[in-house]
Amino acid sequence: MAKNRFSHAWLHDHINDPYVKMAQRDGYRARAAYKLKEIDEQDKLIRPGMVIVDLGAAPGSWSQYARNRLGMLSRKKSDVGTQQDGHAVATDAASMRKTAERAQPASPALSPDQPSTALNGRIIALDMLPMAPIADVAFLQGDFREDDVLEKLEKMLGGCKVDLVISDMAPNLSGVALADAARIEHVCDLALEFSQRHLTPDGALLVKCFHGSGYSQIIEKFKHQFRVVAPRKPKASRDKSSETFILGKKLKHPG
């Protein structure tokens, strides 16, 4: 009976969740897109020309957001270039405002699954679970913990360094604090190891974590590897959840 009450309460909260409604409106596969969106807007993570790797990508909302963001940035850069090539650059404040208004897209986001004509960047997504295709996103299905899967991912990179690693990976939790802490730390360790090997010197890693036993050790590992380390708790994370995100920027010892 208690389980049924919990299920009904969760379903009620989910249906009435504003981020769920926003995801449905904007075409994102999950509300998690707005967690990345908020962190990106705060920390300016995504820039034109980036190579981005999305770990634990399914169902794909983070890849959708990253692809959407690269598409918007590419379009804005193209608009600026066209204006400059045609010598149509505004010189007074009023004209500059009008030019900026004309350059703004009618919608705050491109359709997340529509192909981009000129995406300035690359996105590679990986997950154990299958994921429906996303335009402009290369997908690899496999377990990131397996060496052969990691080799396939490295082959897809083709020797290119990565500018941004985003990881929404989370292990299956048992409810046993010590066991869960070890699993969470292991997932973070995998992302840290991959980032150390493949990030550019100024690259960044964003991982999901959970407050609790082992959290401080993960923070220390980030501080050992990155010059800038910052925890992030976006508003889209549910208040009752211990979920948080750790951002590391600028490798101390680039590989």
From TrEMBL:
Transmembrane segments: none annotated. Gene3D superfamilies: Vaccinia Virus protein VP39. GO terms for molecular function: rRNA (uridine-2'-O-)-methyltransferase activity. It is found in: Cytoplasm. It is an enzyme of class 2 (transferase). Its EC number is 2.1.1.166. The gene is rlmE. Residues 28-250 form the Ribosomal RNA methyltransferase FtsJ domain. The active site is at 208 (proton acceptor). Pfam families: FtsJ (PF01728). It comes from the Bacteria. Keywords: Cytoplasm, Methyltransferase, rRNA processing, S-adenosyl-L-methionine, Transferase. This is Ribosomal RNA large subunit methyltransferase E. S-adenosyl-L-methionine binds at residues 60, 62, 127, 143, 168.
